[in-house]
Amino acid sequence: MLKFYRMKILLFQDAEGWVAQCLNYDIAAFGKTIPEAQRAFANLFLAEVIYLDKTGKTLKDLPEAPEWYWDKYEEAYSVSKGKSAIRRAWEALFPRPWSIRPQQKDMSLKLTPELRLSIC
Question: Which residue from 13, 9, 28 is spatially nearest to 70, judged by alpha carbons?
């Protein structure tokens, strides 16, 4: 079964590395680099979907990210729109949508994130 998810994701740097924070669902992952944060987020998101499915819940049962992340998202640079060099470089690293293929053959996910990058 193939499931599609659209979501807003904020990528920002903290003292230890990069954070990928979903705004629609309060799910966040960390990596020392942007690609590591993206992979960690995709893996964590998949694990969350599988867990919720097994417990009879859905993503709608999860809260949104706290308001601070939404505010930061509004201020951040969009890498999902426009024809900038940053967007082209980003899409070379992460073709859209992100595909996640777990070991279970009956499920795969496609994430279509609206990404914004915050650089402090």
Answer: 9
